[in-house]
Amino acid sequence: EEKETRKKREMGSYRAYEDHDYLFKLVLIGDSGVGKSNLLTRFSKNEFSLQSKPTIGVEFATRNIHVNNKIIKAQILIWISLILLHLRIWQERYVLLSIHFFQYRAITNAYYRGALGALLVYDVTRHVTFESIKKWLKELRNHTDDDIVVMLVGNKSDLRHLRAVSTEDGKAFAENENIYFMETSALESLNVENAFAEVLTQIYHLTRKKAL
Ligand code: GDP
Question: Cβ(38) to ligand 1 under 6 A?
Fold first, then answer.
C-alpha cells in the first residue's frame, strides 16, 4: 500500500513538472548586431536593451505559448557559428581557430541538433546582413531536417529613415526559398510575438500531421 502511494505521488509530481504538451526547439541565426538577442528577450521576457552585447557562447531562453488549447514550450537558442566569420577574421585567427576547429564543429552540430524551427534574421538597415542570409540558410540546411520550419525575419523595421532592404526584396527572397517572411521591430515590439507564434504553430501542425 505504501508502495502504491509513493508511486502515485511520483506520478503526480511528474505531471506537475511537465508544464507543457509539446517541446519545440528553435534556433535564431543571422549576422552579429541584427537583433537576435533582443528578439529573444522581447519574446521570452518582453524586454529590450539599447546596448549591444555580442553573443559569447550560447544564449538560451524558453517560453510557453498556447496553440489550439495545447501548451507549447519553445526552447530558443542563439549561437555564433565561427565557420561563417568574415574571411579576414578567419585569416587573422587562423592558428587559434584551427586548434579549436573540432570543438567548434561539435558545438555547431549540437546547436542545430533537434531544431524544428529557425528564424533567419537580418537588419533592414544593413544590406550586408541580408546578403549573408544565403550562407546562413545553407548552413542551416546542412545541419537540419528538410522539413524544418524556417522564417526570414527583417528586423529593425522601426528605423524607417535608414532602411536599406525593401520589404519586397525580403518577400521575394523568402518566396524563392519557400520559407516564411516577416518584418519585425524588437524595439517597438512589432511582429515579434507573431513571428515566433507563426513558426511554432507551423511546427505544431507538421508534428500533428506526422503523428497521424
Ligand atoms: P545580435 O548580435 O544579433 O544578438 O543583436 P542585438 O540583439 O545585440 O542587437 C544589436 C543592436 O541593435 C543593439 O544595440 C540593439 O539595441 C539594436 N536593436 C535590436 N533590435 C532592434 C530593433 O528592432 N530596432 C532598433 N532600432 N534597434 C534594435
Answer: yes
Using a 6 Å cutoff on CB, does residue 33 contact ligand 1? yes
3-state helix, strand, coil in the chain (%, to 5): 50, 25, 30
Question: DSSP letters along 4-69, please?
Answer: HHHHHHHHHHHHHH---SEEEEEEEE-STTSSHHHHHHHHHHS---SS-----SEEEEEEEEEETT
Residue nearest to atom 26 of ligand 1 (CA): 156
**Res 105: pLDDT:** 76
pLDDT, tens digit, 9 for 90 and up, residues 138-176: 999 999 999 999 999 999 999 999 999 999 999 999 999
Dihedral Cα 134, 138, 139, 143, nearest 10 deg: 150
CA-closest candidate to residue 177, choices 111, 118, 112, 114: 118
Beta bridge partners of 142: none
Say yes or no: CB of residue 50 within 6 Å of ligand 1: yes
* Ligand 1 site, residue 32, Cβ cutoff 6 A: yes
- pLDDT tens per residue, range 88-101: 455 555 555 555 66
- For the entire predicted model, the pTM comes to 0.85
